[in-house]
């Protein structure tokens, strides 16, 4: 069974009858390793919309155009145009041919997708073809309407599939033969998984990931019309098939994604913003808890030119902005300023002083850190006409609330997503070694209870091998920091950029000590301990970043050092809160992880046990 992207259920309503019929047949008849994309634009400046793109590793790349035309309305056919009814349309063969050339010319710019043999040098390394499916015209009707000897120059028979050739009575084998006959030639070689992903990288820029996710929405200045394309790097990073499938299949209404750390939740959120910005005219709101994550998301929106379409806030910042925008007095409410702003907005919405339904879409990242009252508030901000809401969470990373699980039903706060929750278990961020260590450590402390909405899901590694985390114990904080400095310098000497390294601290006091120690070195660094600093975080700045552990949520770096890791913030024997903070910190590292401590206690014992049992 082929993989249809997006899923048939998510797009069947917008399909014409012929498209729906062909989609069902493609999905049922083609092999499991076939990918079929429906109605997804290709190209970069001049976007083309082929009805279907089929990638079969054994056969090649095939583009199909579907026409629900009836023979009695087809008149005056020539090579370039046809008269259908009283409207002049592009000849569908010419339409799909031009679309295929846009695709093929783009793929030919990649040296890893062209042949190197002298005889065929510069040609694509795979067969390609195109064709048209007439869903309401039989072969006999076509032959009666256009003499066979004239069809070759108008609607070539070998590039046409007629309605009677893919009926339910036609076997899978016969259907496949009709498809593969659209290819002018065949190769003995097959398309590798690496080539498949490079094809996807070129065809669909929106699924690209750069080395750091900060560049995900980098603007492409390519001009297809002049035959100029963005060249592909030797090593590419893109969404995997399941991430792309989920991103494109979210559909309308409320949606929930429950994913482990590093599963691509934020990546999917970014893709969703890109899509919504194209289809909505009203503002889009993105909320998270962390100031640093909000700052990073703002940078990504700005790089794509979406800063005027997508508003990004951390939740308390949004409440403050609402109070200022609608002149709400916060002095009547108790608590610290952040609490005052929240209560003031909740009250003002009830009183009608702050309007509801301000946004065409609401997207919530790291939703596990939101209180039920906050969610009940912000869900009222979605325009009921668009009703677009995406809620993403991972209970294992809930570090701001006492409970790990949400502790309330999503329906109780206005999120109507029953039967529309997707689960992401695969971790793509971390190496197997980092992920295994992090999970072994967390598993000792997390509650594994499963309820309707939350459970600590064991993450599954996507397969990236790496080096084991480095764990070290020291006699004092000064010796710990001394080793850290040498580790950072070694990483940099091995080619790791300063901006691809981060130091995570359990407390501000340790961060200040570390900052003072780094001031005496030549290591460029930035600290993010105050609200002022966090709001100004920019992942493009070439400095080593120093964060409190919680502020690293949603970020990622090649090399991460977690220092003073056995520091216990709260008294008591329950180390679950500390474990959650550390789990978040450990899973920020994509390749190299250093964990150090100088206090020997229950937490340090747990860390050592997790490391020593790695072979079990």
From TrEMBL:
Pfam family of the protein (one)? AAA_19
On whether Nucleotide-binding is a keyword of this UniProt record, the answer is: yes
Q: Which InterPro entries match?
A: DNA_helicase_UvrD-like_C, DNA_helicase_UvrD/REP, NERD, P-loop_NTPase
Start and end of every NERD domain?
17-110
Q: Which GO terms describe its cellular component?
A: cytosol
Q: Report the superkingdom from the record.
A: Bacteria
Enumerate the UniProt keywords alphabetically.
Answer: ATP-binding, Helicase, Hydrolase, Nucleotide-binding
Q: Which residues form the UvrD-like helicase C-terminal domain?
A: 423-526, 538-599
Q: Any transmembrane segments, and where?
A: none
Look up the record and give one Gene Ontology term from the biological process aspect.
recombinational repair
Keyword presence, Transferase:
no
* Name assigned to this protein: DNA helicase II
| Origin species | Budvicia aquatica
């Amino acid at each position: 069974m082929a993989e249809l992207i997006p899923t048939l259920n998510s797009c069947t309503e917008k399909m014409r009858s012929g498209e729906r019929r062909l989609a069902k047949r493609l999905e049922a008849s083609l092999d499991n390793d076939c990918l079929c994309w429906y109605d997804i634009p290709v190209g970069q400046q001049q976007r083309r919309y082929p009805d279907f793109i089929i990638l079969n590793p054994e056969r090649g790349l095939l583009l199909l155009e579907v026409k629900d035309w009836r023979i009695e309305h087809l008149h005056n056919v020539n090579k370039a145009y046809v008269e259908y009814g009283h409207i002049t349309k592009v000849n569908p063969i010419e339409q799909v041919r031009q679309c295929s050339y846009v695709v093929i010319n783009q793929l030919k710019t990649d040296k890893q997708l062209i042949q190197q043999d002298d005889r065929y040098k510069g040609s694509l390394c795979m067969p390609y073809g195109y064709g048209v499916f007439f869903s309401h015209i039989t072969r006999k009707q076509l032959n009666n309407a256009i003499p066979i000897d004239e069809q070759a120059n108008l609607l070539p028979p070998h590039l046409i599939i007629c309605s009677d050739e893919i009926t339910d009575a036609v076997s899978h084998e016969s259907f496949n033969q009709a498809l593969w006959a659209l290819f002018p030639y065949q190769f003995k070689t097959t398309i590798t998984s690496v080539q498949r992903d490079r094809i996807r990288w070129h065809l669909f820029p929106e699924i690209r990931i750069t080395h750091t996710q900060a560049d995900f929405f980098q603007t492409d200045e390519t001009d297809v019309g002049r035959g100029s394309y963005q060249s592909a790097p030797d090593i590419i990073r893109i969404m995997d098939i399941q991430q792309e499938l989920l991103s494109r299949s979210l559909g309308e209404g409320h949606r929930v994604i429950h994913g482990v750390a590093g599963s691509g939740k934020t990546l999917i959120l970014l893709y969703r913003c890109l899509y919504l910005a194209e289809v909505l005219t009203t503002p889009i709101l993105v909320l998270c808890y962390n100031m640093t994550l909000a700052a990073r998301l703002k940078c990504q929106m700005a790089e794509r030119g979406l800063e005027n379409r997508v508003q990004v806030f951390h939740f308390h910042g949004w409440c403050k902005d609402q109070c200022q925008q609608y002149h709400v007095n916060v002095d009547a409410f108790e608590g610290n300023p952040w609490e005052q702003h929240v209560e003031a907005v909740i009250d003002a919405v009830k009183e009608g002083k702050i309007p509801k339904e301000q946004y065409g879409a609401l997207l919530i990242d790291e939703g596990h850190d939101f209180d039920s009252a906050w969610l009940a508030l912000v869900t009222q901000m979605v325009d009921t006409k668009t009703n677009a809401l995406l809620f993403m969470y991972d209970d294992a990373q809930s570090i701001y609330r006492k409970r790990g699980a949400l502790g309330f039903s999503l329906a109780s706060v206005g999120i109507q997503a029953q039967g529309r929750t997707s689960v992401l278990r695969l971790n793509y961020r971390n190496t197997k070694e980092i992920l295994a260590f992090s999970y072994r450590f967390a598993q000792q402390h997390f509650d594994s209870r499963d309820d309707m909405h939350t459970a600590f899901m064991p993450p599954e590694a996507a397969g990236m091998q790496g080096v084991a985390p480095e764990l070290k114990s020291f006699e004092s904080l000064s010796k710990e920091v001394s080793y850290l400095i040498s580790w950072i310098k070694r990483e940099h000497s091995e080619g790791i950029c300063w901006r691809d390294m981060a130091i995570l601290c359990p407390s501000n006091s340790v961060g200040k000590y570390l900052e003072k120690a780094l001031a005496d070195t030549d290591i460029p660094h930035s600290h993010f301990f105050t609200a002022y600093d966090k709001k100004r975080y920019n992942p493009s700045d070439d400095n080593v970043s120093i964060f409190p552990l919680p502020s690293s949520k949603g970020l990622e770096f090649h090399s991460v050092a977690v220092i003073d890791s056995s520091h216990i913030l709260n008294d008591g024997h329950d180390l679950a809160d500390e474990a959650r903070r550390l789990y978040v910190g450990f899973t920020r590292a994509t390749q190299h992880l250093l964990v150090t401590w100088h206090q020997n206690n229950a937490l340090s014992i747990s860390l050592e046990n997790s490391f020593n049992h790695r072979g079990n």
